[in-house]
Specification:
- The complex is a heterodimer.
- Chain A is α+β, with helices and mostly antiparallel strands.
- Chain A folds into two domains: 190 residues, no CATH class; 170 residues, no CATH class.
- Chain A contains 13 helices and nine strands.
- In chain A, strands 2-3-7-4-6-5 form a six-stranded mixed β-barrel.
- In chain A, α9 packs across α10.
- Chain B is α/β, with parallel strands linked by helices.
- Chain B has a domain of 63 residues.
- Chain B is built from seven helices and ten strands.
- In chain B, strands 6-7-8-3-9-10 form a six-stranded mixed β-sheet, with helices on both faces.
- In chain B, β9 and β10 form a beta hairpin.
- Chain B is globular.
- At the A-B interface, α1, α10, α11 and α13 of A face α2 and α3 of B.
Amino acid sequence: MKDTFLLVYRNIRERKTRSILTMLGVVVGIAAVVAIMSISYGMQESITEQLSEMTDIIMVTPGSAELGSFGDFGSFTERDLKDVERISGVKEAAALMGEMQEVEYRGEKVMVEIVGIEPRDMDAVFGATVKLEEDGDSETSASGRELRDNDRKACQIGYSVANDYFNYEIGVNDRLTINGSKFRVIGVLEKQGGFRSNVDAQIYVTKRDAVTIFDTDDISTIFVRVRDIGEAEGIADEIEEQIDDNHKLDDFTSAMAMGGAIEELKSIFQILQVFLLAIASISLIVAAMGIMNTTLMSVMERTHEIGVMKAIGAKNRNILFLFLMEAGVVSGIGGVLGCIVGWGAAEVISFGIYTAFDVEIGVVMKLQVLLAGVAVAVLVGILSGLYPARKASKLSPVEAVRYE
Amino acid sequence: MIHTENLSKTYMMGDVEVQALRAVDLEIKDGEFIAIIGPSGSGKSTLLNLIGCLDTPTSGAVFIDGIDTGKLSENGLAEIRREKIGFIFQQFNLIHTLNALENVALPMFFAGVGRETRIKRADELLAKVGLGDRMYHKPSELSGGQQQRVAIARALSNDPEVVIGDEPTGNVDTETGNAIMGILKGLNRDGRTIIVVTHDAEIAAYAGRTKRMRDGRVLD
């Protein structure tokens, strides 16, 4: 075996440029597959991580949910909220009031989405994923505290509001002017990003303050958590019916069970993954043709040598094995390099996505993917080497020896 | 012992049928040194290729140690070439990516001989043909005579009973040619059957028996 490798190695080295070019084809193919696999695993993981807390949520909005949550589609009332809470299977229901308002900080005015919420409902809406920012650099040991029921003119602000919206960074105890009245920042929320980046761009106040700022007690969104995710779709239908009834309108309410939407999102990602893999596979097919071509040329060039080997006693399978090994080694090395390049590419893509879209998608490199990458490369090499190698092994010794 | 019966070979050269060999009956005894002499196109190389199991006859048969080689599979023929016959070519036909030692060891590699035995035996054989100091040289770094000696060592690597030479001195000068024939003579003295094809009567003189060929027939 060691000597076969030696023979194979000599032949590969003999045709260095061509071997490297062939290898490059495999490298590109495998790298594309590996990069896509690890990025899409990363996507899946971040979806699962970010959204798993949201699967039991039904988001109730007026009008069609696809058109955005805080549009001019009407609003809900306290009575709607009470009715929703009474529907069986509903664990908790929270009302959100939202409006874009002018916010002023150190003379700078920016439109920011203000969300009014009962402080006790915060957990129901966000679950455990939205936390106060852990703060190390400020003199204040933590980034403030949660909103409380008895807070007046106090707000929690999202990460982007605190860091990006204004020229000056906003910290705990700083004061903002929202629609003319002064508010004290009591907490800065941890950066969310990804599917919850909307949280980063919002300012949270108590519902009571919101009523004052907005000059209305209309509810723009009702967040519902259900006891059993399996019943979510049914409960969503019931909610729609109930609120539509209250308002004597048809199709006024849109209640979206997030679980279903998340599943849908996941399946879209899976389709995307398959699609990308299919594209990457094309490069593998091209690589396979490259290997076949190289091996065919190698067989052609070495016809005489094959004849000599047969004349001194090589069996067909000796020749077959030599050429298959050659194709396998070239593609195997290509596969290993492809995994490394693919890994690197995945990191670059992940960084690119982060820089461009501010969405954190980790690179999830699974050992199976790497092993499969190398295995696929070797397999592709051997399969595409099969035809030329068979051709070589079947050569008539006397004709091959005579071939110059 | 090798003998041929009514051995014929017809080639197609484009649309033209060429009768390279016509009903050849030849017997070569064990331990014999036979030279087959004839002009080019007389069919001597074709005869050699058939005896050496590199080619299959159109009709007739080649028997090696009583085995009808026409009844063997491709693998069976490969085994005969590997174990019973050592081939020496006019063009030396060494594998140019391998050094002298590896070239000599190659038939043993195909025979599945262990690495250490292969190297030891290849080493001995190269020393025997006077190339003990050239073992790690590539064919391109060797003279024609040296290459042919490597080829002889390679032909001997699986210790065959028969050594076949197709114009073994055709590509070397007279002096080197004589040296090579001397080596073959020595192998014959050790009991090996030597079959050499040549068009050179001087070379044929090394053999114990000479057969002339013309137009695909062996003349008596």
